[in-house]
Design brief:
The protein is of the alpha+beta class and 414 residues long. The protein has 13 helices and 13 strands. Helix 1 packs across helix 11 and helix 4 runs antiparallel to helix 12.
Length: 414
Amino acid sequence: MRLAELRWILATALLAACGDSSTTGSPTDVPSSTDPGTGAWQVVAPSDVREECRLDPDLLAAADRQLDRPWAIVRYGKLCHEFYPSGSDGPTHLFSATKTMAATVTGMAAYQTRDLERTGRKTGPLQDTDRVDHWLDSFTFNPDARIAHVLGMVAFNEDLSYGAKEHRYDATGDREINRLSDVINTAIAQDPDRLGGDLEEFWQRFMVQKLGMRDSRWTNGERDKIFGYTWFGTVRDMARVGLLLLNRGVWNGERLLSEEWIYRLTHPSFEDANTSYGYLTWLQANSNHHFGGILGGAKFQAPLDPCQPAAINATFPHGISQATDCNYEAPWSCEQEFDVGVWTANGAGGQLIVGMPGLDLVLVVKDLGSNAFSGLLWGPVRPALVAEDPRFRGDDAAFCAAYGAGGYAPDLTR
């Protein structure tokens, strides 16, 4: 494990040892947040939301009226509130939110193959540092690309050296990321009895069944998956995937993927290409970032949300990146007090899963609108949290100044 990831894992214990319980929580090996296991979500009663979730129930109802979209909030591993304008939520197309889910499944395949012996091509553990040609006989992008380059959407570049590559959004996945389906199918074929005969079986066995997902399907159950889209699911299933990432790969007391993988998924993979992109996942960033159109086409700059901390790697270089710093320009700095950057799975039309590690919070919404970003969801919901915050008690400006700068993380170690 590299130093950056190790620092992230150890930070919780160090902060708890040095800080007070109101700002850091209690250090544990396995996150102390609960999860529903394989059972159905149990919604916290409105009368208990204030105590169990540190949220104002009246202000959550106000968010319902403002958003008027299917949405939910999970805090401390509990489904604190949900709202459906039509009264119910059936599985719908989540478009590019599929990408973050698929990156998580890739991490599961890496974790489940970690002990396999490497004896030649197409053998051994699946790792993000692997050359793609270790697993595939042919592909159309850079022949020297590694799995991490594909996950970071830079594998198409002719030159993968530092400073030479750019990030272009692979909306449908046809350019490069869909080939990860073939990679996983090849890797799990080493042990089909345990891992399943194909990616559909693997996904069902290690994600759908383990997380207790009720209403999801991916590429219509086919063995070869489209990583760019084709996940159909509900708000509640989206929340399970988000909570797994927030809880650092542990679900129902079992580790399903490594903390190291999740760290790389939720931090910039190649700062020289795009500081707002990890492994098939969008990140809050303050400088040298772009947000590619969900359906491709022109890039546009997503508005910076001053009330969300940026995702910045703890040390450099990291992974296979050669970055020596976070690639921010003045007045922005690479310094951070708490490593709690916000990440988002973002699908066309506003299908969002937003993770906020410093607040032990997952937000989910459907149909928020074209070019939606996490701030459009966080803004209406935030008053309910700030009203019950132990330090700021309704002072939104002071809360955002501290939290948005990465200087306040009341629930980092939960």
